[in-house]
Amino acid sequence: MRYVVTGAAGFIGSHLAEALSARGHDVAGVDAFTDYYDVALKEENAQGLDVRRLDLAEDELDLDGVDGVFHLAGQPGVRSFGDVFDLYVRQNLVASRRVFERAARAGVRTVFASSSSVYGDAERYPTPEDTEPRPISPYGVTKLGCEQLARAYANGFDLDVVTLRYFTVYGPRQRPDMALARIVDALARGASFELSGDGSQSRAFTYVADAVEATIDAMERAPAGATYNVGGGVEATMREAIETLERMSGRSLELTERPAAKGDVRRTAPDTNRIERELGWRATTSLEDGLNAQWEWAATRVAAS
Fold first, then answer.
1. pLDDT of 180-208, one tens digit each?
2. Which pTM does this prediction carry?
3. What domains are there in the chain, each with its CATH number?
4. Rounded to an integer, what distance in angstroms lies between the CA atom of residue 190 and that of residue 192?
5. Are 34 and 56 in contact (CB under 8 A)?
6. Of the residues 3, 88, 119, 139, which is catalytic?
7. Fewest beta carbons less than 10 Å away: which of 8, 32, 213, 222?
């Protein structure tokens, strides 16, 4: 098959492009290489991949001869209040609208990467897909808006689209602004770490290889219009994740507590019954194994620097 992966130089996108290529598919990656974090890291992610620089909010996406689009590109991060929101509108809503419109015209199946942030502080846990979305960050608002755009193009222009709501994906190459990436980097360098909140906030951590497997399954087998939670089988607090990393690294992390970040939810816990039942997918990587892989990757990079 010939696939396009948007955001192919990013964390999940680069892992997805590699996995698809390893399965023998023809993969064309596109990425805007924005400066949300160090562009050199994105260029490193893209090594060995066919990734073209493309600004989806302006440039035309070529889908001739393409069998499917994995739309992972977007402006990430819940710290999205203030004037920066205009950029989130452009990179998420405007860019996604153009991707959906082009895919609908070309008759190309699209898998859209959304986020657990659309739920906000959910009304119940574990949280099923039919829970009313109530995002508490501008980022979450734009991701929900993208979901609604996808639905509008499905209804109006027969877009074949599947939506995935990722829950705290981690692993090697994780975005450097994310908490686990900053924790393992601080441990590897012997630096201190600023912890937002008291550390009791919990997450359903999802290892990147599991998320990639769910994403490919969705392209290959999901019914049009489906929405799935993609979340790890283990929920842990930030304190528990830090203790696990300290134990496996044999190091102690100096912590400085800061107020909780605006837009950061207290808990995420997905109900994954739907994706397990319909696609047969379940996260299989334990938190211990996943954190160990991320620690070893980070420690090797620091030692080589």
1. 999 999 999 999 999 999 999 999 999 99
2. 0.97
3. 2-166+207-230 (3.40.50.720), 179-203+234-268+284-304 (3.90.25.10)
4. 7
5. no
6. 139
7. 213
